[in-house]
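Anyone up for a design puzzle?
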């Protein structure tokens, strides 16, 4: 048993990287625990293990105790400790390997189909692809090969838990890095990406070399590079956007394929009012607002899109003079839409705007919107209400 134990410990030390001293101490503690259960009547005893020969001795009051039962306990305990330590070493090795792969793409086969997750087999271990991290376009069967993004690697009592994703934006970024040599070499950089998994992705790229076209590199000859990525994502649409340090240019590129007529920037609030021709409005907004939503995520700006015919200056509304208009814009209210979303209490909190003025602004904005929707010229200047003496005097003077 001694020679067998010595060989096992040397193997674990060499192959699994666990020092023999740690293994011997773990074995000693396990034996002490086992002996306490076997010899409850013995209050004082100790276990000594020779580090060179791995001979195990049961000691009581400084003298070795020879017991046949102890020999059986020692053999059984040593086997359990060795198995446990090998398992722990393998778990640590797997955790170390996949921790390095976090943020990368791994391949495996579908091992198990569950309602809330797919179990992916990697050979030495398994990964979990939760339902929330699956793309609506994914339809896998048992045994199918799958590529997924390593989202997180966690330590658990059962071993490392590898959480995968097919919906994360990082998957698209990594696919471009693998598919486009210019990105891998650092000539073309991915500046930002925004994704709605299963539907559309916008990715902004730039080139450090003027001779290399960043968009052309990502598209590839006859679109082959981007087609490979689209195929991997099950047909998800991808817009490759040219990044620009000029915010207005970047917005125009991000809003593609829509053509922008005018852009008003509020750099302090990182908001932009985008005006387009009437026939470009639906294209700019996109299906269920997707185009402008993705562009907004790509930029990190709030984008407000409207057609030129819908543009009604705030200053033309009754109750909004130059100072009031400036106060509203300072508070981030730059359009009719912003006023409609606000309550009278919200507007009254803005310096220079009282409760009555706030109510009048909101009422006028609603009337302006109503007139616009009915394709009538909105009555932007409302007559003074006859609620008091001052209003009557003002009316007479106007007459």
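Challenge accepted. My sequence:
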């Amino acid at each position: 048993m001694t020679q067998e134990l010595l060989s096992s410990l040397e193997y674990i030390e060499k192959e699994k990287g666990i020092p023999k001293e740690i293994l011997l101490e773990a074995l000693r503690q396990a034996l002490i625990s086992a002996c306490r259960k076997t010899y409850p009547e013995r209050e004082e005893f100790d276990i000594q293990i020779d580090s060179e020969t791995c001979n195990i001795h049961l000691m009581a009051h400084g003298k070795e105790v020879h017991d046949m039962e102890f020999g059986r306990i020692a053999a059984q305990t040593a086997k359990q400790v060795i198995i446990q330590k090998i398992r722990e070493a393998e778990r640590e090795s797997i955790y170390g390997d996949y921790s390095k792969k976090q943020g990368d793409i791994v391949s495996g086969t579908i091992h198990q189909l569950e309602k809330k997750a797919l179990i992916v087999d990697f050979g030495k271990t398994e990964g979990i692809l939760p339902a929330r991290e699956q793309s609506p376009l994914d339809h896998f069967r048992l045994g199918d090969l799958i590529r997924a993004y390593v989202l997180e690697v966690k330590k658990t009592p059962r071993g490392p838990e590898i959480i995968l994703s097919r919906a994360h934006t990082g998957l698209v970024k990594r696919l471009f890095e693998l598919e486009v040599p210019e990105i891998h070499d650092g000539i073309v950089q991915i500046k930002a990406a925004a994704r709605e998994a299963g539907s559309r992705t916008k990715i902004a790229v730039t080139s450090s070399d003027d001779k290399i076209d960043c968009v052309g590199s990502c598209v590839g000859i006859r679109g082959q590079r981007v087609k490979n990525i689209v195929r991997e994502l099950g047909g998800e649409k991808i817009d490759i956007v040219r990044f620009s340090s000029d915010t207005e240019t970047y917005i125009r590129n991000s809003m593609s394929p829509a053509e922008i007529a005018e852009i008003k920037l509020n750099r302090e609030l990182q908001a932009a009012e985008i005006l387009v021709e009437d026939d470009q409005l639906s294209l700019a907004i996109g299906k269920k607002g997707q185009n402008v939503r993705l562009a907004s995520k790509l930029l990190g700006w709030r984008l407000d899109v409207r057609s030129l015919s819908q543009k009604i200056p705030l200053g033309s509304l009754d109750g909004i003079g130059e100072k009031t208009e400036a106060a509203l814009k300072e508070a981030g209210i730059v359009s009719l839409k912003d006023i409609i979303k606000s309550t009278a209490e919200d507007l009254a909190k803005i310096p220079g705007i009282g409760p009555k003025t706030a109510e009048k602004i909101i009422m006028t904005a609603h009337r302006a919107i109503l007139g616009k929707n009915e394709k009538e010229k909105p009555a932007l200047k409302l007559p003074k209400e006859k609620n008091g003496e001052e209003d009557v005097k003002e009316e007479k003077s106007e007459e």
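A detail worth pointing out: The mean pLDDT is 84.
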